[in-house]
Amino acid sequence: MDDLAGASDQKGPDVEVDAVARWVLRSVLARPGVARVAMALVEGAGRRLRFTSSDRLGDDGVPDWCLVDAYDDVPLTSVVRTGEPLLAAVGDLDARYADFARRQAEDRVAAVAVLPIPGGSGCLGGLVVYFAQAPAFDPGQVEVLTATAQEVAVRLEPRQTPQDSDPPSVTEPDGALVASTVVDGDPRAARTARQFLRRELAAWEVGNELSDVAVLCVSELVTNAVMHTGTPSELRVTLDGPTLTLLVRDQGRAQALPSPDGDPDPLRVHGRGLQLVDALAHRWGTEHDESGTTVWVELDRSATG
Known about the structure:
The chain is an alpha+beta fold. The chain contains 7 helices and 12 strands. The strands form 2 sheets. Strands 1-4-3-2-7-6-5 form a 7-stranded antiparallel β-sheet, sandwiched between helices.
């Protein structure tokens, strides 16, 4: 983790984010059985998390932030990537997160609750609650924890909105192959995206194995965008040496569309969620702003042979 030097000297939106962090860290820490609280926000197109915790609050109440690699294999990064909460006793995490479970046991943490902080069209970050005594995580407790993460989102959203709502600019490396298209906000858009991608990858002489993986990822990303926003999406494909990058950007939440009955397309994969992307990608992440959400995926050409 890299410390964010001078964070306490920052002004403007960062100070307001500090206030939200201070509120949630202190208020949740005061609850019975809670030993520690942490909060993280997505940065750098999902490549890293800006992290702080109750034991990083200064005497003046200003949180000390650090940067966490979004690809560290810990519950927080998994929850931020998938948007699915994780509530478990530390002992139950040993098989999946052995190092994390060992560290928590050494700190006498009995259980953790990791909640996504939801955004308008993506995940803003995550909230982690460490318990000295393992709670039952009954529906009432889960509802309270979920409501806390949602309240963090409500307080953060106005502060996370950029002044410029235009999509972030993309600078392509010299010599990279680039292709892009826009698909409609229609449940069948994934088919159009797959056809476009296969055509471009064939022209670039990309092998069948990598092409198949890329098509599966794009199908999921475009379908996810349509089902959650109902708006057109831009698909941008870049091949730079061994790295194939897929980028899908929607136009923000409009009206989510239901999937058509009797869809004859056998390659539709919606419903698997971003777990499929997580399993296939070398790296992936998200970035959201006032105008929509961007999801990017990197595939390693050499890894597929």
